[in-house]
Amino acid sequence: MADLTPDDRRRLHHFAEQIAELAEHHEGRWKVQTSDGRILVAMMIPTAPPTD
């Protein structure tokens, strides 16, 4: 992956913050982070109560 300029990094971070804000409205089911010039979005798997 190409090196990002400081402005590219700032825009990437801002975009990731916007996605994280949207994810908060979905009951914490999503995790958003930036890593190595990429935005990573992961769905958090809810823990279901055990069934007997």
Can you summarize this structure?
By secondary structure, the chain is α+β, with helices and mostly antiparallel strands. The protein has one helix at residues 6-24, and strands at 30-35, 38-43.
Structure keywords:
52 residues, alpha+beta, two-stranded antiparallel ribbon, 23% strand
Structure report:
By secondary structure, the chain is an alpha+beta fold. It contains one helix and two strands. It has one helix at 6-24, and strands at residues 30-35, 38-43. A two-stranded antiparallel sheet has the order 1-2. It is elongated, with a radius of gyration of 15 Å.
Q: Given the helix and strand composition, which structural class is it?
A: alpha+beta
Radius of gyration: 15 Å
What strand order characterises the main sheet?
1-2
Question: Helix-strand pattern, N to C?
Answer: HEE
- Mean residue pLDDT: 76
Name the helicity range. Answer: 25-40%
Tally of DSSP helical segments? 1
What form results from the Cα inertia axes?
Answer: elongated
Low-confidence stretches: none
